UniProtKB/TrEMBL annotation, chains A, B:
Annotated spans, Disordered: 109-129, 369-389
Name of this chain's protein: Auxin response factor
Shown part of the complete sequence: 93 to 531 of 750
Function: Auxin response factors (ARFs) are transcriptional factors that bind specifically to the DNA sequence 5'-TGTCTC-3' found in the auxin-responsive promoter elements (AuxREs).
Protein source organism: Sphagnum jensenii
Main location per the UniProt record: nucleus
Keywords for the protein's UniProt record, in alphabetical order: Auxin signaling pathway, DNA-binding, Membrane, Nucleus, Transcription, Transcription regulation, Transmembrane, Transmembrane helix
Amino acid sequence: ILLPSSSSSSSSSSSPCARKVFISVDSELWHACAGPLVSLPPVNSLVVYWPQGHLEQVANCTPQAVDQPPIPQYNLPPQILCRLTDITLMAHPDTDKLYAQMDLTPVRESEKPLVSEEPPPAAKRKRNSFCKTLTASDTSTHGGFSVPRRAAEECLPELDYTMNPPCQELVAKDVHGVEWKFRHIYRGHPRRHLLTTGWSVFVSSKRLVAGDSVLFLRGENEQLRLGVRRAPKQQQDAPSMVVSNQSTQIGVLATAAHAAMEKLRFSVIYHPSTCLSEFVIPYHKYVKVINSTASVGMRFKMRFESADLTERRYAGTITGIGDVDPVRWPNSYWRSLKVEWDESAASERQERVSLWEIEPFNSAAILPPLSLGQNPSQKRRPNKPTLVNSSSVWDPAMKLLWPSNPPHLASMPESEDLSSPAPIWPIAIPPVMPDGAAS
Amino acid sequence: ILLPSSSSSSSSSSSPCARKVFISVDSELWHACAGPLVSLPPVNSLVVYWPQGHLEQVANCTPQAVDQPPIPQYNLPPQILCRLTDITLMAHPDTDKLYAQMDLTPVRESEKPLVSEEPPPAAKRKRNSFCKTLTASDTSTHGGFSVPRRAAEECLPELDYTMNPPCQELVAKDVHGVEWKFRHIYRGHPRRHLLTTGWSVFVSSKRLVAGDSVLFLRGENEQLRLGVRRAPKQQQDAPSMVVSNQSTQIGVLATAAHAAMEKLRFSVIYHPSTCLSEFVIPYHKYVKVINSTASVGMRFKMRFESADLTERRYAGTITGIGDVDPVRWPNSYWRSLKVEWDESAASERQERVSLWEIEPFNSAAILPPLSLGQNPSQKRRPNKPTLVNSSSVWDPAMKLLWPSNPPHLASMPESEDLSSPAPIWPIAIPPVMPDGAAS
DNA sequence: ATGTTGGCTAGAAGCCGACAA
DNA sequence: TTGTCGGCTTCTAGCCAACAT
């Protein structure tokens, strides 16, 4: 029987996984593990950075400490227009948790944005990966891993079925480049694909439990890679607490403020596994959505990741429009929509979303700048700013987004046709906004 | 044979070790694990906070990333006088790595410091703990843990030696309050104390390897506790990288600057395991040392932790005095002494130390304000500032330490007798200071 | 006094098909 | 098609004393 060593990997291969040094992770594997919803803007494109969203993520990655000293205050606009200078994909050395360092360079006013950098539609590749949620049997010490039939046939190297039983040794590299070896065998009645020897050390090394997922990815060069996705439940980070939470938060704001003022490059860390909203979004997405409209009562859909790790859409209704934090972040588009989800089991889903996260209910396109208003009380006057309540309330917002020239604020560049057809569409304030009754 | 269950612990006991919540750790155990050199100032005492040192520790806890964007700049003085409002002792939930959150409140100028708050000399307790570095046998799967004889007799509950063999079940709580059970037996020829059943799960749970240490601590109430000290070598943190390093560093500075300006409480995290210098030191220590003198050529001793986890002193000679970073932190006492160590195997030891870390060579007291100058070329004129080179260079330092009243700088309060006997002793600049040739 | 090793044993890890969902 | 289980085998974890340092 073929099967040279069939031992496990551990510290065998010559992978340059040095201590305390972060190596850039294979992009295809990173994105496969991150899931279909996570899409990073291309390098060198224009993006909008949302400090509020960054703070949300930091708070989520951090222990809710007993430590809430005074609130810092920085004169930051809600959003900063940047060029995405560079992206480094990374993974935590212990947990394989993914993240990305995004280098952002605030855009000078003189730098006019390219006309609506449209995203190149990525060609769909044929299926060359599979992701399976581990069962109790997969993770028990009693046996190995049951490979779904289609997955084995499409993603694993072909077996020599003349053997009895057919078996081979698989070698797959994880996100750090570490090699793992498995015995792949096709046996049993009825026949099935199994990974036996080597599987349990992988499970225990990665500390996988039932509910977690593994992902196999076959490259063009027949190189096999594999990744890990933890069950969303056990998202315990075991935060390392290098500095206090207060310092971390101040650091986020101060870094952005400093960078925006001096127009200097800065870096942010994005954790896709937090399942929170992305706080660096493509500029064209922002522009498109700013020029469109939304109103209370409007129906929409939004993409989510379902339990089987595929994409699905949930429907909801806009129930309010306004600032999340009117004091610290007035006139911000960040999570400006208050929504209600159709499904009653709508826990887990945010009750506030941002304009660019949603899609119109009739899935024509992603929020085209056509009239979408369906609420009769919010009749839209085309080509003119729709100021629902007092217009003076939203004047500062205008200034913030297209500032006259405040020295210490990041400036959004002027749109080419500020006075022509596509109007700046401000956020409509609903007549009644039950802010306190948020439950 | 007595031995009720002899099973391991894991998630058994009802310890309130909730997720993502940091519980304050038993102080005695924390300090025992931290080692004899780590001494935190008492709560409510005056302390001096050194942002430079804080940055050093942060850099040490953080991957040396490929990420060094532009340097931030804050107008911070090298030191900030604070009151130590509170201390919370903590431990990392996964690694048991110790740290302390220290809440600092910058002192207003109006708040005169109490006259030389002397530290109450802590009474030495009798030995009620032992710490053993694990051998290969201790950590192998082949057997248990060999308890040193004296340690067992002094720190473990007494065995009933009439039994054959004498044995009992030990229960010890770790730093998180989790209970671990061990079978303690006295057997073999010659007789010895061993921990058998339960030991290996502890080793694997804590991921201990040969070279790490365990520490047993017996309380007054016969309650047994145990802690873990990793070998200094494997100090890999697996940093969680919540935000970029740049943001972390900026956060440290911005937090301190903000707090100093507004006289608001802020928190810092201190990691004793970094083995770097403490960046929060008692004010009385600072005052004492500022009023003393030091000069190039002077001999001194300094406390270190030796391999067997006890305290020992190394001797060295001052070879230079001056700023570590003359550009960003001019006129700072932080690591202002450049030193050379006697032992040739002096790697690992810092080549720069601060005044308050060293002791005079003749161990009379801790740097009394007596004349200690031994270098004939640096003859000291008592009771007057010794300005070796151009005195104008050090004028700004004076202003920084005792500022006239800059609004955004933390101010050091005026010493009661600025013009009387005890002079402000400035750092002497050596004639030649080879800064580039640091190796 | 205590680290390491060989011997021995109990129990877990782990491979297999059967069977069911 | 694939999750779980009982049966069986192999191997390691783990207790012991002997021996060495």
